[in-house]
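3.2 Worked example (two chains)
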Amino acid sequence: MSQPETIIHPIPPLYDADSKILILGSFPSIKSREAMFFYGHPQNRFWPLLARLFGEDAPSTIEDKKSLALRRHIALWDSIHSCTIIGSSDSSIKDVVPNDLSVILNNSRVDRIFCNGALSHKMYMKYIYPTTGIKAIKLPSTSPANAAFNMDRLEREWRILDNSSQIR
């Protein structure tokens, strides 16, 4: 097993002035840190799910992924700025320092926040919500570790994004 490491989040937030909703993960996996982009593990279902929700082809390059998110007015970041973690294990996370979302919230039209998974939501509500005052909606994790949710079940839960007039 890997040793615990204290890591600062290496990936900048993805957003633009037209972003209307923010999807927060917890902290990037090893594969995402290597790719320097969100949901970089090939088994993570985030990108195929987003494409499926909007009736598009699944993006394969980072530029295609950025384009899909921004075209749908979606901003991406994580709840945690730095932590001590073993590998990619959410359950090992300690010594959390939250991300400051003001850079996104002050420079976009974001007024709705969704959390990709329970840990992201827990960290957001504990550390960030008191500052933003924007309640976050917890969605089931797209991680391959969330075997309880197949793609169809994820799509049913995540359909709230597609039903939001704010991201059309």
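3.2.1 Second chain
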Amino acid sequence: MGLFDFFKKGDKVGADSAIDSKEVLKDTKQSGDNRDVVTKLSYHPQWDVPLEQQYVFNFLANELQPLKPNQLSLSAINIEENPRTGAWNVKAFFRSSLPEAIELGEIELFILDKDDKRLASKMFNFKELGIIPAESARPWVFEFDQSSFESGVTEAPKEEGWKIAFNLISLRGHQLDLDETWKKQLPKDQQEALEKIVKDLPKLGKTEVNFTGLQAKLQNDKSLHVSIFIRNGNDKAINLEQLPLEIIDARNKQVAKGSFKLDPILTVQPNTTKPWTFIFPAQLVDIKGIDLSRWTARVPQE
């Protein structure tokens, strides 16, 4: 089945999901006015669209609501399930109300039901859509295979109001999540230094939570003060109430171990890294031969 075969005369444009283009594009020319932007139908330059299919695309494009300036939008049409594979072929218009042509890279998309509950998520390479002209709408089919479905989801949404939407959390990139107490204590240049460290850390998996050492200091009272990065690769916040933690030094020896009750609960926002300091009292620290030239913080597996 070719792409054109998915779009039929009976199709209707459904819910629209629009975002500010600044969420995706940092250095693109922006429009300064506030008029409604009526997007024009645009075909991929490699397409040879039959006359009858042009009629279908024009009919659907005419149903699209205007956008505000400088927006990117996904306008849902409908979903066809592949009877052989169970995949969802999601028909939509990708639209831009920017005043210049754009080309995008990899972006994660969601399928949401009418109550904004997530049904599926998948990364797509928007380079395949080609260059999108200024103020235009390009029809496309996004295939969500079964591996992209959320747990327990077995069928496509039947009720109106479902959406295909951008994952804004992934669009903004991984960020530093600095607690208010740290913001008050740290000078601006040190905050910026932390942001650079976070930016340069290895990329996390989509569901990965990682503990990365930042600074460890043995105090005069033989307590150990350890600052670590708590890194959350999920697109949902994590809440830490109790955290068992051990410190392994350069000799690969455990030099501290304890369990920390976090009150109030420590929340790490989606796709962010939060620095936090843990203090191991002297009785939980083995200082004999301790070598903190390299060290690792980890949650013990017991």
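3.3 Remarks
The first helix runs from residue 3 to 6.
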